[in-house]
Amino acid sequence: MSRGQNTSSTTSAANAAILAAALVFATLPLWADKGLVFLAGIVMVQIVFAVSFNLMFGLTGLVSFGQAAFFAAGAYTAAWLGRAVPELPFLIFCLAGGLVGALLALLIGVVALRRASGIYFAILTLALGQLVYTLIGKSDALGREDGLVGIKRPVIDLFVGTLDLSIGDRYYYFLLVACGILLGLLWWVWHGQLGRLLAALRQDAERIRFFGVNVRRYREIAFIISGGVTALAGALVAPWSQIITPAIAHWSYSALPILFCLLGGASRFWGPAVGAIVFAGLEYATRTMVGVSELIVGGALLVVVLAMPGGIVGTLSLLARKLTKNGKERLNEQSA
Amino acid sequence: MVRTTRRNALKLLGVGVAAGALGMPWVRNAQASGPYKIGFLGSLSGPAESLGAPMLEGVKIAVEDINAAGGTNGRQLELVVRDDKAKPDVGTAAARELVGEGCSMLLGVVSSAVALAVSAVLQQEDAVLITCAAHSMRLTKEDFNRNYFRITDNPFMRQRAQAHVMAERFGEVTTWGGLIPDHEYGRSTWECFDNGLKTYYPELAKAEPTISKPVMTTYGGSDYRNFVASAMRDPAVGFFVSAYGGDAITMYQQALPYGFFKKKHPIVDAANEFIVARAMKENFPEMWIGSHWYSGAFTGNPMNDELARKMTERTGIKFLDGFIGEGYSAVRAYAEALKTADSGKTADVIKALEGLTFDSPTGKRTIRAEDHQTIKPVVLYRVRGASNADGIEVVEHRVIDGATVIDPATPGVKLTF
User: Fold this and answer.
1) What is the mean pLDDT of each run of 10 residues along chain B (417 residues)?
2) Is B1–A290 a contact, with Cβ atoms under 8 angstroms apart?
């Protein structure tokens, strides 16, 4: 078996896994209870949240501890517009949410990326994220600490008719499609020219600077894309959960995508997605173990992170390579 | 090696459908016969755990009592429990999950923010919720919906009753301040107490009260010293506090070294029952506490006495929290409603609950048909630390007829003073 065939078989297995996951998400409302369907919707949004975060973390090599601020900016913008100007199309609310997130990323990026990198960048983004959290909690228009409750699911005008997404599982399928499109966009960025340049920046920013590349500018671009897509994910979640509270802007919410990346593997595009699914599965499985649930989830995560430095996807990939190599050696021995 | 082919995709789809057919535990199901399923949704972890856990005990005792007596309509009650962690998003997810498991009759909920969030999705999920402690006035006013019921009193009843007692007993204390958590419940309680002071001081104490702007505190915090220091600077003598659960324990303990309780008197606590008193024991300062249910106030009521006996047997605790009585009462209300709504369908249950009069540990209660607010007695007691085996004592208690202090039923309309 040639090296090309090895790669091909690994890719084929990965594609099959992605297809299987997509099928599970797509068929979930047919066989699962409402609670699980609701959770799956949240997980889909969190996958977009984590993958967009990983554009900064895994690809560009910068840790933002304030990512939840973008998520909250998108969610609150869409929900607030939905109340203030309900006659506007829902897609405008989503786009506005994404735009506000991107603008916020631009502003934070201008401050945080000018001189800071590494831990200083992380602390600066954490501080600015907490500022957003505090502002939301003090804002009467945004419901202060109680948040915005009773957010309606939209009716979309399709020109030839309307589609009421509040009926049945329609909004779930809308989320599925929207998250799929956003993940497609992130895939394109990750695997395209920009993605390769960002990966090079992570590996050796100084060398890239010598090539005449404006390093800060490209980091800002990555930050804006990451912030914008995260905000779009936030805008999508508001009508799904039908409530948003300042908790989604809190630093502990910013820790979620970091956790997903470490769990699933930050070096792979789908790593954070796997992390988000595994984390949700752990939480769901232990939800009735009141008082010990957090201990079990935390302990399990600790074991995975310590035992699998490359995350679940990295480790599985390593195992697959070893198995293929062993199989090839056995085949050679038999042939001999 | 697995190839990505249409055949493999169909196989995977088949596995999913087969899982549904095999009836796995997480698979969608419906409740047509068998036991009536009741979903408990409450704070079983986090700062409000000390409020949610006793509520669940009351629920369990009621379910056991009803099942031991043959159930309702010959059908047993089955309890499914979920923790809302006092977080609105977790609460709505848990409520949806409970409904998905066939529990369209929900009860519990400590936090007003959770109650408001869950209440907003009840009609969409075709479920009904009876809250046992959530006090926000919005629930029966501007955010009212027909699928929501409150089994206990509300801030209009309780905080105005507290203000009434203060005007009656402490007419000379005319300056008042507050330590209020900055969320819906906190603001709701303060508005009602403030209004009560303005109403009853001129009437009973023949004096106009001077009311300071309250100190707004955080929820779930660990350091309340800055808030206590602000309250110490306030010239107000009497203080109203509506922080609750773990927050109240932390705040009261941090307030002790400041001499807060020596400088400020009387203290009115909105709803902490015996939770903080049991934690601080002999160090607990004297205060007037609002309660959902106090067994000592209803001695002679067989349901009250039996509930108190069972709960003390289980826990060894003498001073029982009112949340127990409310959890117990909510199950009793459902059981009584199911006698006429034997289908267990949400629309039938709502209809049966509206205007329902039923027995509870505080005596007969009636759920007002218009706004689903229950008419029940308001209970207050004066508690302080003591050098006895329990470390605390109830000096006196007051029971006020709920019908005399209840707000007018105005569903859909914001409460204004």
Assistant:
1) 45 43 43 84 88 95 97 95 88 90 94 90 93 92 94 96 96 97 89 96 96 91 93 97 90 94 96 93 95 96 97 93 97 97 94 97 97 97 94 96 94 90
2) no
Instruction: Tell whether A252 is within 8 A of chain B (Cβ).
Output: no
Distance between CA atoms of residues A282 and B149, nearest Å: 34
Q: Which of A31, A144, A291 sits opposite B45 (nearest CB)?
A: A291
What CATH number did the domain enclosing B149 receive? 3.40.50.2300
Virtual CA dihedral for A308, A312, A315, A318, nearest 10 degrees? -160
For residue A33, give the nearest of B82, B97, B120 by CB distance.
B97
Same domain, B165 and B221: yes
Contacts of B4 in chain A (CB under 8 A): 12, 15-16, 19
Of A16, A34, A287, the CB nearest to B96: A34
Residue A6: per-residue pLDDT: 57
Q: How far is A219 from chain B (nearest CA, A)?
A: 34
Rounded Cα gap, residues B402 and B410, in angstroms: 17
> Are A242 and B100 a contacting pair at CB < 8 A?
no
Classify residue B270: in a domain, yes or no: yes
Nearest in space to A6 (alpha carbons), one of A317, A314, A315, A333 = A317
Are B107 and B74 within one domain? yes
Instruction: Please name which of B112, B148, B98 lies closest in space to residue B330, comparing C-alpha atoms.
Output: B148
Every domain of chain A and the residues it spans: 3-247
The reply to whether B359 and B273 lie within a common domain is: no
Q: What angle do CA B56, B57, B61 make, to 5 degrees?
A: 115
Q: Residues of B with CB below 8 A from A245's CB?
A: 87-89, 113
Residue B103 near residue B34, CB atoms below 8 Å: no
Residue B398 tokens read as: 């007051």
End-to-end Cα spacing for chain B: 72
Task: Please tell me if residue A31 touches chain B, with a CB cutoff of 8 Å.
Answer: yes
Is A215:A54 a contact under the CB 8 Å cutoff? no
CA distance B379 to chain A (A): 28
The reply to whether residue A38 touches residue B120, judged by beta carbons under 8 angstroms, is no
Tell me whether A336 touches chain B (CB under 8 Å). Answer: no
Residues of B in contact with A166 (CB under 8 A): 124
What value does the mean pLDDT take over residues A149-172?
88
Taking the CA of residue A58 and the nearest CA in chain B, the distance in Å comes to: 27
Pick A264 or A327 by higher pLDDT: A264
Range of the domain at B259: 156-291+378-405
Q: Which residues of B touch A15 (CB under 8 A)?
A: 4
| Interface check A140 vs B, CB under 8 A | no
What is the rounded CA–CA span in Å between residue A189 and residue A225? 9
* Beta bridge mates, A31: none
Task: Determine the Cα–Cα distance for residues A171 and A174; give it in Å rounded to an integer.
Answer: 5
> Same domain for B101 and B85?
yes
Same structural domain, B177 and B284: yes
Domain count, chain B: 2
Residue B134 in contact with residue B185, Cβ under 8 Å? yes
Look at residue B14 and tell me if it is in a domain: no
**Residue B56: which residues within 8 A CB-CB, separation 6 or more?**
B40, B42, B44, B81, B108, B327
Cα A201 to Cα A267, B129, B281, distances in angstroms: 14, 54, 61
